[in-house]
Each structure stands twice: as structure tokens, then as C-alpha cells.
Amino acid sequence: MKINILFFVFFICFISITAQNTKSNKIEIAYTQLPTHPLEKDIKSYKLAFKNQSAIDFSGVFNPESKISIDGFEKKLVDPDFTVHIDISGFESKSYVTTNKTGGLGASATQTYVYIIEGILQASTYIYDSRDGSTYYLDELKNIDELTIQNRSKQSYNTEDEAKKALNLAKKKELNLLNEAVKKQFLSFISMYLNTKHGYSLKKEHYPIWSIKSKKFDYAKIDEAASNYNQAVVQISADGTPQSAKDLLKKSVLIWEDAVKQYDPNNKKARISTKNVGALYLNLVMANVWLQDFDKASLYFDKAKKAKGQFVWKPVIEKLLYTQKAGIEQDELRKKGALVIEKLETTDPNKKSYATDFLVSNQKYRLKGVYFYEKRDRNAYSRRKHYDYTKSGILTAVLNQTYLSKNFAKGSKDVKFEYDNDVSRIVYMSYYDFGPKKDKGLQPVKYRYIKQGKIIKEEGFENTLGAHDYTMEMIYNDNGQWLGFKKKSKETLLEGLDIKYEKEKVINFTKTLKLANNNYSHQKYVYSYENDRISKVDMYQDEGDNPTFQEQFGTINYTYNNDGLLIKTKMSGPIYNEYIYDANKNLIEVVKHQDTNHERITFEWEAGSGNETLIKFDTRFVFQSLLYPIPIY
């Protein structure tokens, strides 16, 4: 990557514009713009991630992921060094009628009315670094002029009512035009913005140099300085700035500096007066920018801002000064490996970054393995699960192993997790051992969406393994208390959960399941409490659209030890569960007594926090967790 400032003069065209005895000569120059916020020197590749929460459609040709490139880096969709996240949080539009004076000045002006439709995008960008899992350079692009579009009626109206009627008739069409303009403007602005901050772009721009025109005074030296400047620009080549070009620029600087010393602010007829000194200051800014003497360039720009004239060019040259100064200074730090970049997230050794409200805190132990024994007295397990985490406690995989296999099986029950770096979405990856995706390797089986540490929605596959077969929407009250979910395929309810509380205690919950005959099965669980602990749950069932729950099919009774830990749950007959804990009060064994069969499950724990409960959440686990203190398995 070439990062020296390079100038290639494609052509020089002189456009004479007389303004207060000054003549502007605009020159088209090509140069490499260095980034104002560069990335570390070993970063080579990137991809774009676009999230749109507005009502404007950015698909197709307006998708930033396909339309925007960052110059100087390779676009790489798989395993890039960094990802630029572009998020649109909203779009606001408004329309109104305002006055418009035409036909003269002062009392002779006629007051008419026009309508205006205005739209503004709210957006943000940040970088996710795949190498260490950090995020940085977060920018909120809200209420800025570049993302504000305003359409004005082409004609004026005699009365306010006429303008309002015209607005109502044209509003739909005008909004469509506004939306198209917003999309084009957004792509243009974001491309320019990202390349100014992070890219290495070959720019072609017109920048002026001023001469002074007058019959009264001899300005031959000023013309000589302009000529030297033009020759210097011609000599600057793709290999850098030659010394001869620097020498010519320095000669121009000496002449212009000598001229501004003659400035007489009190005499408008002086050789260097308020009419022309501003142009000379800007000449000095331009020459010192290319000489990379930014202290002098900044000094003369401060003087130019206070001087008269050149109002159109001052903001253009100010931007050039800022970007070149920042680019050169930051590039020196980049070369030395001394860039100062504020990391927004804690770096994770496993190269992942996660939202802080998603991490589990104040947890000393996490689940490491679960072992299943078909008989209580059998020493060899029939199968086991193993849980893999990052060091920050994020679950990355649940692996299965049978007794007969030496390695963890590649089966449909094997699950690996991929996360958006802000944990707004979790992708469940698994191996299909059936259907059209059999032996296709890891494939997504469901997507789970997270907001502020809570599951908001899940989309998954049940039958076709093609498009999403179901969507599960979580339900919360205004206090964030979880009330259940509705799992649907299109508009058909597949499964539901409805939890009722009395203050913080669950008093009952109802689960609904669609049957093969398209009827619905309902089960209701009613809680009783003693000493603030569940003492009993009565279970009822029914079918149909209007369940009355007259039929009770069982009761669960709960027994606790002196530490308040549940040690037994008993249903009717010989069916009951025993719970055994270690010294740290972690559940280490469950014995399930069912007639003569006593299945045993053991749990292995390790030190550290873990989010396995949230990640492994499914409907089966939900019902278990509401009734039993059994970890996931």
C-alpha cells in the first residue's frame, strides 16, 4: 500500500475570477489522502456489516455492504481482519408550509408560500477487530447536515391554504422522491466518511492559488510565487515529493510572507490591504500543507479566517488542512506502532467481544459436563455432554460423546454458537444427520436475538430446513418480568407459555402445544408456597380452544434440607427424584426413580462464570426450570 502523499497533475487550467483585486487560479491535483483515524499497520482486510432499523429500503443497489469500499484494504467476506458496522437506527420525516418572499426587496417583495418535506437519517458506525475481539471508533451520526435531505416545492403559492392543499396532494410522491434522495446521499456520505477516516484514497480535487491584479501596483513577485507553486505541483510525482518541488514551494512561501508583512489594515488603497491579504494567507496555507509544515499552515489559516473574501474556499481549505495534518501525524504513529486507539470493549483472549449486559456476573462455577447413566449402579456412562467457553464465560459449543466413541460425535445434537460481536444475534450451528442438509457440515439451525441480556425472539427450522419454519416471540411486562412466549409457524400457534405472578412469585403457568390432529393440548401448573418456598405444584390438563382444567393429572411435592436446597420431588406412586449437592452447593447428581429403573445423571462443574442457561434455553428446559432446579442437559 502506498501511503506517501503523491501528486499527479493531470492538467492545469487557469480560471480568472476577479474579486477585490485578486485572481483565483484553480488547479486539479491528484494525491493520496491518508486516513485521519488509521488502523494498525498489520490490518489488511475488512468486510461491511449493515443493520437497518429504519423504514427505508436499502436492499439491492442501495445496500452499503455491496456498494461501499474502503480504499487501501481488501474486501474479504470470510475471516477479515476487521468489520465496519454501519447501523441506521431510524429515519424521521416532516413536512410543513413556510413563507417565501419573491419579486423584489423590502416593501416591494411579495410574500408567497412553499411547502417543504424534510428527512433525516440517524446512524452510527464502529469497527470490530477480529484479531482481539475489541471494538472502537464508535461514531454517532445523528442530526448532521450531510444526512438531512430537504425537498422544496418547485412553485410558490399565493396563500398558506393553497400550499397545504398542494402538499397533501403531492405528499406521497414527494416522500418517495425524498426516500430515493436519502438513499443516494447516505451511500455517498458513508463512503466518503469511512474513506476519510480509515482509507487510503487517491483524490482528484481543484484547489486555488491567488494572484493579484492591479494597474496601480507591480505584483510581478506575487505572479512569480504562483508560477513557482504551479511548477512544484507539476514536479511532484508518484514516487513522492522531490526536493526540487520543495525548493520551489519554499521560494513561493518567502515571497508571500514578505508580501503579508506589508499589510496595512488601515489603508484600503495600500498594496497589500484588506482586499487581498486573505488570498495571500490562503496561498501560504496551501504551500505549507504540501510542505507538511502544519504549524505554519494552521497559523496562516487562523489569519485567513479573520480576513475578508474567499468565503467559498475557506471551509474547503480548512478541511484539506485538517485531513492532511491528521493523516500525516497519525501515519507516523502507525509506522511506529504507537497508535492510541480507545477500545470500547474488554479484549477477550478467544477473539470475541460481547456486550457487558450479556455476561454473567457473580457466578463462581459453571457447568463443564453432564454424564448420563442408564442404571444407577452402572459405572460407565451411556453418553455425555461437554461445554466449551471463552475465558469471559461465553458458551461456544455443546459437544456430545457416546460411551462407544472415543471422540465427541458429529451428530444433530452437537451445537456450536456464533455471535454478533454486540450479541444482538446468536447463531446456533449444528450437523444435520438427516434431510437435504445431511453431511453438509455445520449449518445454522436457529437464530436467537438478544437485547439488554434478554432473549427477544428466536427463528428456527423444524421441518423443511429451508426458510425459517417458526418464530418464537418472548413476552415481557413493563418491568422486564418474563411472561412467556408464543411459538408460531406463519400465523399458526405451535406452542405457547403463559406465566402468572403474584409480585415476584409464580402462582401458575400454562403451556399449550399443537397436536398432530390440529387440536391443542393444554397443561396448567398451580403453585403452593410454604416459608417462601414451593411446597406443591398441582397439574391439570385439557384440550380444545376453551380449556377449563377440570382434570388433574398429578401433583409434585417438594422437600428441602436445612440449607434450603431442594433434595426431593415426588409425584404420585413410586416416581420421585433425589438431588445431591457438593460442598459448594452445586447440584452434582440427580437420581430419577421410576418403578425399577433408576436413571442417574451427574454434573461436573468448574470455576468461572458461564451463560449456558441463557444460550441453551429451549421450551423443554423452560418447563423443567419452572418445576425443578435441574441444570440444562
Sheet with most strands:
18 strands, antiparallel, barrel
Oligomer: single chain
What is the count of DSSP helices, taking H or I runs of 4+ residues? 9
Our Rg estimate from Cα atoms comes to 36 Å
> How much of the polypeptide forms β-strand, as a percent range?
35-45%
Number of extended strands: 28
- For the termini, the CA-CA separation is 52 Å
Total number of distinct structural domains: 3
Mean pLDDT: 81
Question: What is the structural class?
Answer: alpha+beta
Low-pLDDT windows of residues: 1-20, 345-357, 408-412
Portion of residues within helices: 10-25%
Q: How would you summarize what this structure contains?
A:
Keywords: Signal. The protein contains nine helices and 28 strands. The protein has 633 residues and is an alpha+beta fold.
Q: How do the helices and strands line up, and which of them pair or pack?
A:
Layout: E1 8-12, E2 18-19, E3 22-33, E4 45-52, H1 64-67, E5 74-75, E6 82-102, E7 110-129, E8 134-141, E9 148-152, H2 160-198, E10 201-212, H3 220-235, H4 243-260, H5 277-290, H6 294-306, H7 313-336, E11 365-373, E12 383-389, E13 395-402, E14 415-419, E15 425-431, E16 442-451, E17 454-460, E18 470-476, E19 482-489, E20 492-502, E21 505-514, E22 520-530, E23 533-543, E24 551-560, E25 566-570, E26 576-581, E27 587-594, E28 597-607, H8 612-615, H9 619-627
Parallel strand pairs: 4-5, 4-6
Antiparallel strand pairs: 1-3, 2-3, 3-10, 6-7, 7-8, 7-9, 11-12, 11-28, 12-13, 13-14, 14-15, 15-16, 16-17, 17-18, 18-19, 19-20, 20-21, 21-22, 22-23, 23-24, 24-25, 25-26, 26-27, 27-28
Helix pairs in contact: 3-4, 4-5, 5-6, 5-7, 6-7
